[in-house]
Amino acid sequence: MNVGIILYSHTGNTLSVGQRLGEALRKKGHVVKIERIQIAPDDPNVEPLSLIYAPETLSYDAVVFASPVHGFQMSKAMALYLRQLPSLTGKKAVCFVTHFFPFPWMGGKAAVGKMEALVKEKGGDVIHAAVIDWKNRRREAEIDQLLRNLETLLGE
Questions:
Q1: Mean pLDDT, rounded, of the chain
Q2: Is the pLDDT of residue 47 over 70?
Q3: With 70 as the cut, is the pLDDT of residue 130 above it?
Protein backbone atom coordinates (compact mmCIF):
# COMPACT_ATOMS: atom_id res chain seq x y z
CA MET A 1 0.00 0.00 0.00
CA ASN A 2 1.19 3.53 -0.75
CA VAL A 3 1.01 5.50 2.52
CA GLY A 4 1.57 9.21 3.03
CA ILE A 5 2.44 10.47 6.48
CA ILE A 6 1.57 14.14 6.37
CA LEU A 7 2.41 16.09 9.46
CA TYR A 8 3.11 19.41 11.02
CA SER A 9 5.85 19.39 13.65
CA HIS A 10 7.28 22.49 15.24
CA THR A 11 9.61 20.94 17.84
CA GLY A 12 10.25 17.55 16.20
CA ASN A 13 8.23 15.37 18.60
CA THR A 14 5.39 14.73 16.16
CA LEU A 15 7.93 14.17 13.38
CA SER A 16 9.77 11.55 15.47
CA VAL A 17 6.55 9.55 15.89
CA GLY A 18 5.82 9.88 12.17
CA GLN A 19 9.30 8.57 11.37
CA ARG A 20 8.80 5.54 13.62
CA LEU A 21 5.48 4.81 11.92
CA GLY A 22 7.15 5.10 8.53
CA GLU A 23 9.94 2.68 9.47
CA ALA A 24 7.47 0.13 10.83
CA LEU A 25 5.23 0.32 7.76
CA ARG A 26 8.18 -0.01 5.38
CA LYS A 27 9.24 -3.19 7.21
CA LYS A 28 5.74 -4.54 6.49
CA GLY A 29 6.22 -3.88 2.77
CA HIS A 30 4.39 -0.58 2.39
CA VAL A 31 5.70 2.31 0.33
CA VAL A 32 5.83 5.28 2.72
CA LYS A 33 6.57 8.94 2.20
CA ILE A 34 6.78 11.42 5.08
CA GLU A 35 5.84 14.96 4.12
CA ARG A 36 5.94 18.01 6.35
CA ILE A 37 3.52 20.88 6.11
CA GLN A 38 5.46 24.14 5.97
CA ILE A 39 4.05 27.49 7.05
CA ALA A 40 4.97 31.15 7.03
CA PRO A 41 5.82 32.68 9.33
CA ASP A 42 7.64 29.73 10.89
CA ASP A 43 5.91 30.31 14.20
CA PRO A 44 2.59 28.53 14.74
CA ASN A 45 1.43 31.20 17.19
CA VAL A 46 1.72 34.13 14.78
CA GLU A 47 -1.20 34.93 12.53
CA PRO A 48 -2.07 35.05 9.76
CA LEU A 49 -0.46 31.79 8.70
CA SER A 50 0.01 30.78 5.11
CA LEU A 51 1.01 27.43 3.67
CA ILE A 52 4.39 27.35 1.97
CA TYR A 53 4.19 23.62 1.30
CA ALA A 54 0.93 21.67 1.32
CA PRO A 55 1.49 18.00 0.42
CA GLU A 56 -0.93 16.44 -2.04
CA THR A 57 -2.86 13.32 -1.08
CA LEU A 58 -4.00 11.97 -4.46
CA SER A 59 -1.16 9.49 -4.93
CA TYR A 60 -1.70 7.75 -1.57
CA ASP A 61 -3.94 4.79 -0.77
CA ALA A 62 -3.91 5.78 2.90
CA VAL A 63 -2.87 8.93 4.70
CA VAL A 64 -1.69 9.49 8.26
CA PHE A 65 -2.28 13.04 9.48
CA ALA A 66 -0.30 14.14 12.53
CA SER A 67 -0.14 17.35 14.52
CA PRO A 68 0.96 18.67 17.88
CA VAL A 69 -1.61 20.18 20.21
CA HIS A 70 -1.21 23.93 20.62
CA GLY A 71 -3.33 25.81 23.14
CA PHE A 72 -5.54 22.76 23.82
CA GLN A 73 -6.38 22.35 20.11
CA MET A 74 -4.96 20.96 16.89
CA SER A 75 -2.19 23.16 15.50
CA LYS A 76 -3.39 26.04 13.34
CA ALA A 77 -1.04 24.84 10.60
CA MET A 78 -2.74 21.42 10.39
CA ALA A 79 -6.21 22.96 10.56
CA LEU A 80 -5.34 25.35 7.70
CA TYR A 81 -3.90 22.47 5.67
CA LEU A 82 -6.90 20.16 6.17
CA ARG A 83 -9.38 22.91 5.28
CA GLN A 84 -7.71 23.56 1.92
CA LEU A 85 -7.48 19.88 0.90
CA PRO A 86 -9.52 18.63 -2.04
CA SER A 87 -11.64 15.53 -1.61
CA LEU A 88 -10.33 12.61 0.44
CA THR A 89 -13.14 10.33 -0.78
CA GLY A 90 -12.01 6.72 -0.83
CA LYS A 91 -8.91 7.35 1.29
CA LYS A 92 -8.21 5.50 4.50
CA ALA A 93 -7.01 7.97 7.10
CA VAL A 94 -5.36 7.77 10.49
CA CYS A 95 -5.07 10.82 12.75
CA PHE A 96 -2.85 11.35 15.75
CA VAL A 97 -1.75 14.23 17.91
CA THR A 98 1.11 14.69 20.35
CA HIS A 99 0.89 16.91 23.41
CA PHE A 100 2.71 17.76 26.63
CA PHE A 101 -0.16 17.27 29.03
CA PRO A 102 -0.38 14.33 31.41
CA PHE A 103 -3.91 13.32 30.34
CA PRO A 104 -5.61 13.01 26.90
CA TRP A 105 -8.60 15.05 28.06
CA MET A 106 -6.31 18.08 28.43
CA GLY A 107 -6.59 19.03 24.76
CA GLY A 108 -5.54 15.83 23.00
CA LYS A 109 -8.98 14.27 22.63
CA ALA A 110 -10.55 17.52 21.42
CA ALA A 111 -7.69 18.14 18.97
CA VAL A 112 -7.76 14.68 17.43
CA GLY A 113 -11.57 14.83 17.34
CA LYS A 114 -11.45 18.06 15.34
CA MET A 115 -8.85 16.54 13.03
CA GLU A 116 -11.10 13.52 12.45
CA ALA A 117 -14.07 15.81 11.73
CA LEU A 118 -12.13 17.81 9.12
CA VAL A 119 -10.92 14.62 7.41
CA LYS A 120 -14.47 13.22 7.36
CA GLU A 121 -15.80 16.51 5.93
CA LYS A 122 -13.47 15.90 2.99
CA GLY A 123 -14.83 12.35 2.57
CA GLY A 124 -11.93 10.50 4.21
CA ASP A 125 -12.53 7.21 6.03
CA VAL A 126 -10.91 7.68 9.46
CA ILE A 127 -9.95 4.18 10.56
CA HIS A 128 -8.03 5.12 13.70
CA ALA A 129 -7.16 8.08 15.91
CA ALA A 130 -4.70 8.39 18.79
CA VAL A 131 -3.31 10.81 21.35
CA ILE A 132 0.35 10.54 22.33
CA ASP A 133 0.95 12.13 25.74
CA TRP A 134 4.54 13.27 25.35
CA LYS A 135 5.13 14.08 29.00
CA ASN A 136 4.08 10.84 30.67
CA ARG A 137 5.74 7.50 31.21
CA ARG A 138 3.19 5.78 28.97
CA ARG A 139 4.46 7.60 25.86
CA GLU A 140 6.45 4.66 24.49
CA ALA A 141 3.55 2.27 25.12
CA GLU A 142 1.16 4.67 23.37
CA ILE A 143 3.46 4.93 20.35
CA ASP A 144 3.88 1.14 20.23
CA GLN A 145 0.09 0.70 20.40
CA LEU A 146 -0.36 3.18 17.55
CA LEU A 147 2.20 1.22 15.50
CA ARG A 148 0.43 -2.09 16.14
CA ASN A 149 -2.97 -0.64 15.33
CA LEU A 150 -1.72 0.95 12.12
CA GLU A 151 -0.02 -2.26 10.98
CA THR A 152 -3.21 -4.23 11.65
CA LEU A 153 -5.55 -1.74 10.02
CA LEU A 154 -3.46 -1.27 6.88
CA GLY A 155 -2.51 -4.94 6.58
CA GLU A 156 0.56 -6.23 4.77
A1: 89
A2: yes
A3: yes
Containing domain of residue 89, as a range? 2-151
83 vs 45, 61, 77, 89, 119, CA distance in Å? 18, 20, 10, 14, 9
Its pTM stands at 0.91
Per-residue pLDDT at 124 exceeds 90: yes
Q: What is the DSSP letter of 66?
A: E
pLDDT at 141 over 90: no
Q: Is 45 exposed, middle or buried (0-12, 13-18, 19+ CB in 10 A)?
A: exposed
- Report the pLDDT averaged over residues 88-96: 94
Pairing mode of beta strands 50-53, 38-40: antiparallel
Query: Cα–Cα distance between 16 and 78 in angstroms, integer?
Result: 17
- In whole angstroms, what is the distance from residue 146 CA to residue 89 CA? 23
Q: How far is it, in rounded angstroms, from Cα 79 to Cα 3?
A: 21
Domain assignment of residue 156, yes or no: no
Is-cis flag, bond preceding 41, omega within 30? yes
CATH of the domain at 111: 3.40.50.360
Number of structural domains found in the chain? 1
Residue 66 lies inside a defined structural domain of this protein? yes
